[in-house]
Write a structure and sequence with these properties.
Rossmann fold; 2 domains; 8-stranded mixed sheet; 14 helices; globular; disordered N terminus
């Protein structure tokens, strides 16, 4: 389905001004925001199928699910909230000629195990690093989205000798400020971060999956696609990871531990020489014009590629452009010595 509308920020501001947040009330506004969200023009050939063989890797007493395609140096794809490796299904085939593409489900998400942990930022970092060690991945290219950005950048700056480069889109990268968020984002995330309201929305109503995921995809997702995104969170008890993630966003220094860790990682990134590729969609959500300008100034080595219309889950509108842009960039990275003989373990 193709929909062409104006960029999100002015449209949402105008509409919310028209209806009036106060007049609508909290519950009503949370219902109306997804309903009035604009769409973008998506490419025509997006496939709902997920034709990859599942693998389950033992990690820290639990299991992490992943799929892979291709041979050669590893290309690790990290998703965010509330998605899974399924998000990358139409991107993977474009990357597999460049290496061994591995799309993993974060712990507690997708088909990965659901251990009894807090599911904080540092927990996900620990499990992803253990997953990398379990597979013996070396000379990795990281492809990051949403909270996969925060996790991947953290790993890369602590293990720079094991990362060839980082491609990222709509990713958590720097500490956030409420003043930089538009009126809709402020309203949404203040509610999602509230202990009582957030629990009711995310755990009881499954709001993040049923409302925000389709809204931020930028197009009408098919029932088959929605079934894939719903599957990990059919029970309220499964929804703890997606409830915790909004609380972990470091707005104005809170939570302090997440702010401190992301800020320290970004300082290391500024000082490093690691190759970077930023993919920017229009209008996007995280990657505002202001933030992109800041990144270009503070990370001058960073390459930037516009991938066309997209909201936040850009893989659901422009997977081909994403895949081709990242593949082209990878082909220009310094080659890994002996990479022509590298294959997956057991091959």
């Amino acid at each position: 389905m193709k929909i062409q509308m104006q960029p999100m920020r002015p449209t949402w501001t105008m509409l919310l001004g028209l209806f009036g947040i106060v007049a609508i009330g909290s519950a009503g506004c949370m219902k109306i925001i997804p309903a009035i969200a604009p769409g973008v023009e998506a490419e025509a050939s997006i496939n709902a199928e997920f034709p990859f063989e599942s693998r389950f890797v033992e990690v820290l007493g639990s299991t992490m699910h992943d799929v892979e395609q291709g041979e050669g140096p590893p290309i690790l794809l990290l998703h965010g909230n509330p998605t899974s490796s399924y998000l990358w299904r139409n991107v993977i085939p474009h990357l597999s000629p460049e290496g061994r593409v591995i799309a993993v489900d974060l712990i507690g998400m997708g088909k990965s195990g659901k251990p009894d942990i807090a599911y904080r930022f540092e927990d996900h970092i620990e499990y992803v690093e253990a997953f990398i060690e379990a597979l013996g991945l070396e000379n990795i290219v990281l492809v990051l989205h949403d909270w996969g950005g925060g996790i991947g950048f953290d790993y890369a700056m602590r293990n720079p000798e094991n990362v060839r480069g980082i491609a990222f889109m709509e990713a958590v990268l720097r500490p956030a400020r409420w003043q930089d968020a538009d009126v809709v984002a402020r309203y949404l995330f203040r509610n999602l971060r509230d202990e009582k309201t957030g629990y009711d929305l995310i755990v009881r109503q499954n709001y993040f999956v049923e409302k925000l995921m389709p809204m931020m995809a930028g197009r009408e997702l098919t029932e088959e696609e929605m079934e894939h995104y719903r599957a990990p969170y059919l029970n309220e008890s499964d929804r703890k990871p997606i409830q915790v993630w909004p609380q972990e966003i470091p707005f104005d220094g809170s939570p302090e531990r997440t702010h401190r860790r992301i800020a320290a990682t970004y300082e290391k990134l500024e000082a490093s020489s690691m190759p970077l590729l930023l993919l920017v969609a229009e209008p996007g959500m995280i990657m505002s014009e202001q933030l992109v300008a800041t990144l270009e100034r503070e990370l001058p080595r960073m390459q930037k590629k516009n991938i066309g219309p997209g909201m936040h889950y850009v893989q659901e509108t422009q997977p081909t452009r994403i895949g081709k842009a990242v593949a082209s960039w990878i082909s220009g990275l310094e080659p890994v010595r002996g990479s022509e003989t590298m294959t997956a373990p057991g091959d």
